[in-house]
Amino acid sequence: MPISEFEVITNYFQQDFPQRAEINLGIGDDAALCTIPTGMQLAVAIDTLVEGVHFPIKTSSQDIGYKSLAVNLSDLAAMGATPAWMTLALTCPQPDETWLRGFRQGLFELAKTAEISLIGGDTTCGPLTVTIQVAGFVPQHCALQRRGAQPGDGIYVTGTLGDAGLGLATIQNQITLPLPIQKFVKLRLNRPSPRWHEGQALRGIASSAIDISDGLQADLGHILIASGVGASIQLASLPLSEALGYIPLNYAWNLALSAGDDYELCFTVPPQQEIALQKVLAPDSYTRIGTIESTAGLRCLTADGQLFVAKQLGYQHFC
Amino acid sequence: MPISEFEVITNYFQQDFPQRAEINLGIGDDAALCTIPTGMQLAVAIDTLVEGVHFPIKTSSQDIGYKSLAVNLSDLAAMGATPAWMTLALTCPQPDETWLRGFRQGLFELAKTAEISLIGGDTTCGPLTVTIQVAGFVPQHCALQRRGAQPGDGIYVTGTLGDAGLGLATIQNQITLPLPIQKFVKLRLNRPSPRWHEGQALRGIASSAIDISDGLQADLGHILIASGVGASIQLASLPLSEALGYIPLNYAWNLALSAGDDYELCFTVPPQQEIALQKVLAPDSYTRIGTIESTAGLRCLTADGQLFVAKQLGYQHFC
User: Fold this and answer.
1) Residue-wise over B33-52: b if at least 16 C-beta within 10 A, else e?
2) Structural domain containing residue B39
3) Min distance A34 CA to chain B CA atoms (Å)
4) Cβ-defined contact of A317 to B125 (cutoff 8 Å)
5) Model pLDDT for residues B255-271, shown as the tens digit of each residue
6) Are B163 and B280 in the same domain?
């Protein structure tokens, strides 16, 4: 039996989500009403996930719900912002209650962890598409941006790179891995860990930051262009998980550089802030991979100083 | 030749749009940064338009761009908020430059009039879907809401009702009208006039407000439920344009009550605020159609006091 738009909203999305004090009026009117704390700027990001484009067609609705929010929280993390609220535009072919229950559960799970309120939404009939917009708070003049990297700054990434790409290759049957490794890389693909705690900790320390959605090569490239600088990175320094040990090293580097979907942070830190960096981030949570240089362009170097060119560019959303 | 996501954003959406002082960082980073003026709340609304569901498949991209923003501005109008900024999530099958140029033109035209900035977006590959989120400013405690109507309050609507429904019937060849009338009703369908000026003027005067997207019957129904009241409206008082004179009166009433897509405001005003109302709105811009009553339910009455039941309910977005 079809359920109406209003029932969907009431049944699945109005209850239980974190209720922040800044939300003066939530779901249920023509618009939500919010207050922004004094001295704060609002950071606003929006991302759309389309079935068959951003996630494989058989992805569980739990994972779709989780990932739709995760990719947006990752954008807030890259700005050093604290998650505050989100809106959801959900287009799906028909209101299947089992699917919706799963979607809500995945979305709710991450929303609770991030303490982010759901303040509004629109549910429409059509091909499966999920758009989430998030807003976060960041003290005036403290946001991290893509511009700001200077020659001599260290280049860092959080976590490990390439796992999500290997997860996709596994799902697409391009490669066979031991079951526990399969499970790990699929989890990294479907349930990325947006680094909003790290992003906030880097305020006042990092000179630039971006989240790695399209692959390190493409996203670090955005920092370089926005900052008017270049960089060299050492492939031997790329943080690779145990899973990437199961594939040839060249393949692992390609995944780490260009497969995307990692949702780790890439950031730069001036030499004089290195000690501060060590104080705010746990040693095993980030890795130095290279140095900002004045010569434009990105150079990926092997241990013997050879240039390595990744086989594919980061994902371009218009295919 | 395919154009990439980044080129789309740069070529079509980054330039010329109004640049408000509150936008500290616009398109081009992981998130935009905005400042909210002191003493203001932020009103946030989101709406999705899907091809074949919210607009006929042959609708021009200019009209899609215009209407996608208009329906969102209408939500801000219903809260009494001043438009400030928007984000755009555009999913389309392939980046057809002619289509995109038209879409941008329609969107830009209304954005310029509303002085609203475009601060971010996401462009993805998939079936045509447009999601816009808007944010507006409203002084603390001054927002109009659905709740607040009291027995004795007058019920008012802006503009005329049912034109958009007649426009859709015309496009679907359900009815043939003289060409100038066809043109008018199609324009009312494709280019609604969101009433943000009227909404702002009604702050402190209206006891409740909503925008008419699903039809007067459904939307006034939301006010009644949120306010815990009922209402009677006089069908003879419904503001109908000259166009609706071309169809039988019963059909006109049905369109006015339940066809939706009008994007006029429905609002209630306590008797003691009627003089204030007359001062802030031009006499020909709004019409009193009935009165709030304590008995629950909505009664639509003919001139001889008979109950009229509209044939269809307002549009339900899950079909």
Assistant:
1) bbebeeebbbbbbbbbbbbe
2) 5-139
3) 5
4) yes
5) 999 998 999 999 999 99
6) yes
Distance from the Cα of B220 to chain A's closest Cα (Å) equals 12
Question: Does one domain contain both A77 and A30?
Answer: yes
CA–CA distance, B202 with B209 (Å, rounded to integer): 9
State whether B75 and A35 contact (CB < 8 Å). no
**Position with higher pLDDT, A95 vs A76:** A76
Q: Which residues are within 8 A (CB) of B251 and not within 5 positions of it... i.e. 6 or more apart?
A: none
Tally of domains in chain A: 2
CB contact under 8 A, A145 and B2: no
Question: How far is B60 from B213, CA to CA, in rounded Å?
Answer: 21
Please give the ipTM for the structure prediction. Answer: 0.90
> Per residue in A259-309, pLDDT tens?
989 999 999 999 999 999 999 999 999 999 999 999 999 999 999 999 998
Name chain B contacts of A41, Cβ cutoff 8 Å.
Answer: 24, 33-35
Would you call A43 and B36 a contact, using CB atoms and an 8 Å cutoff? no
Beta strands in chain B (DSSP E): 23-25, 32-34, 40-50, 82-92, 117-125, 129-139, 154-158, 208-211, 230-234, 265-269, 286-293, 297-301
DSSP letter at A211 equals E
C-beta contacts of B249-256 below 8 A and 24+ residues apart: B252/B162, B253/B300, B253/B308, B253/B310, B254/B310, B254/B311, B254/B312, B255/B161, B255/B162, B255/B165, B255/B166, B255/B169, B256/B161, B256/B162, B256/B165, B256/B216
Residues A170, A98 within the same domain: no
